[in-house]
Amino acid sequence: MRRSCEPSHLSPHAGAARRRRRLTGAIVEAIAETFRVLGDPTRVRILDALAGGELCVCDIAGLVSISESAASHQLRLLRGMRLVRPRRAGRQVFYTLDDQHIVELLKLSASHVQETAGAPVHEPHLVEAGS
Predict the structure, then answer these.
(1) Which domains does the chain have, with CATH numbers?
(2) Residue among 88, 86, 91 at smallest CA distance from 75
(3) Of 55, 59, 78, which Cα lies nearest the Cα of 68?
(4) What does the alpha-carbon distance between residue 80 and residue 48 come to, in Å, rounded to a whole number?
(5) DSSP notation for the chain
(6) How do strand 55-56 and strand 92-97 relate by DSSP bridges?
(7) What is d(CA 40, CA 76) in angstroms, rounded to the nearest whole number?
(8) With the C-alpha atoms ordered 105, 110, 111, 113, is the resulting torsion angle positive or negative?
(9) C-alpha span between 78 and 116 (Å, rounded)
(10) Phi and psi (nearest 5°) for 85?
(11) pLDDT in tens, the chain (131 residues)
């Protein structure tokens, strides 16, 4: 691969240090897959709804304005990516965010979008789980 800047602006030591700190291929792929799943507005709305705490499928469907069948389908994808986790109570299934990292990821994304759009930056409407 031909480089456009010769000589490199990084010293050999700095270049080697940065190469050692790069993400592994498996981690890069997992991050990319997570963002692919988060690339759907309905799934983002579901995660936003769950940021307020545990909900059953019918409540998620109502909050996001989709059918229960569609909510179940989206939740299955989110569960597969370990973004949500289920809890069965008899015939009902309740979902919650898998961990606090998901809330932080949503908050950072919302802040970035608001800042990029030139809108005044304010705290996203996300409610932290357990609040």
Answers:
(1) 30-116 (1.10.10.10)
(2) 86
(3) 59
(4) 18
(5) ---SSSS-SS-HHHHHHHHHHSPPHHHHHHHHHHHHHHTSHHHHHHHHHHTTS-EEHHHHHHHHTS-HHHHHHHHHHHHHTTSEEEEEETTEEEEEES-HHHHHHHHHHHHHHHHHTTPPP---S---TT-
(6) antiparallel
(7) 14
(8) positive
(9) 27
(10) -135, 145
(11) 555 766 677 788 887 888 889 999 999 999 999 999 999 999 999 999 999 999 999 999 999 999 999 999 999 999 999 999 999 999 999 999 999 999 999 999 999 888 877 766 555 455 444 44
Q: For residue 72, what are its two tokens?
A: 């179940």
One-letter identity of residue 54: E
Q: What is the residue whose two structure tokens read 């179940």?
A: 72
